[in-house]
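Appendix B. One record, verbatim.
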Amino acid sequence: MDRYDVVVIGAGIGGLICGIYLANAGLKVCIIEKNANVGGYCASFTRNNYKFDIGVHYLGGIKKGLLGKILEELDLKDRIQFNQFDPADKIIIDGKKIYIRADPKETIKEFIINFPKQKDNIEKFFSFIMENNFAQIYKKVSGLTFRNLLDSFFDDYELKTMIEGLTYNIGISAKFVAAITAVILYKEYLLDPGYYPIGGMQNFPDALANKFEQNGGKIVLNKEVENIFIQNKKVKGVKLTTGELINSKILISNVDANHTFKKLLNKVNSKGYNLLKKLYISPSLFVVYLGLKENLTNLTNETCNIWSFDNPIQDSYFSNLKKNLKNIPFVMVSFPSAHEYREEDKISNKSTMQIFQFAPFESKRFWEGSKDLMYQKTIERVEKILPGLKDEIKISVLATPFTFYKYTYSKNGAAFGWLSTIDQLKSTIFPWKSEISNLFFVGHWVTTGEGQGGISKVIFSARKIAMLILHEIRQKK
């Protein structure tokens, strides 16, 4: 039986960041990951020498945001090189286009050019978004949805739908997402967007893993935790599917809370287990990964992410997920190979693109019978914005909600953890610390009081939990 101060289940970004902090403080830490790579949804895979990103399409906040501050704090900022591409995003709704640019002033100009009559309101809204006084922001948005907040600034429906588009980054429409969650998300995507790790997205979690191991941590890949064993409501360690036992004083779960309580803890009667029945999860995804015959420039000279909506009535995309699969009213397209190198460097001949859309879990039989038709309809949908795509495809890889469940064990293949509604916002809804002694949670399956917001919120929870654990250890000495 190996013995550690801390065992972390899952080598996603939250587990890695938390592990670095704890190992750096001198604790003996082991991270166990069932897959061959670290990173979770922020990782890559290769098919026929084509490299694809599983989920995360870029990072925000490297120069001005939380991610950059934490990388600097961990002495990682100079170890990972990023390419900031500009523009970062293009939102298309009913034929109208808006670009999200690296300089927020240029982004504001984009909105004003398209909606000149709303110039004053646009400037007021973005001034509010860029407010540094968080207390002022919270005071205004507390208890509001993002739609409520937009209604307080604008009366132009079309403008509001253009602004709402980026809430799809966390799998929920403006009608239901908590305003504070959306504001924090927009701070990241509007103030400092478009960072991509040079060499590919996998380089980001790999750099974190290397730093963790340099600090004395141990990463175990291709091994799965079968159960958590507890004694007198206190964590004692874990058992792997290989039969190995690993003893630990502290356990951190970086995997789905449903999997943790229902499978690893075997439905142990606890507040955490009972909470699972009351909370709503985010939707899953259907993703088409494409390797192209020739360079991407045969299709487009733009390499920003494309958010394309057939019409401005976005709420229905979430409420009628299964019905929408036949018509594909929304797609998000990214181009990872275009950002892997700086413009002055050699461009990869293995051009790739990825197409994302929301999808229901349904049943295995449903997806076995539907995914080929879904693929066909998806390509037809994207050809509206990238004519000639079909003729450029060399290989394709499809991922359904079952694929995401298989690799992450996230319930129903959920892509964004808990749904960021007002009712699921408080940090006490699903807290970082369990009533089971020395059991902690990290990542997008804990609630922080601000909702889920991609990598930035995951690393926020990771740092918070690491500090909490170190404080408790000091208190016991």
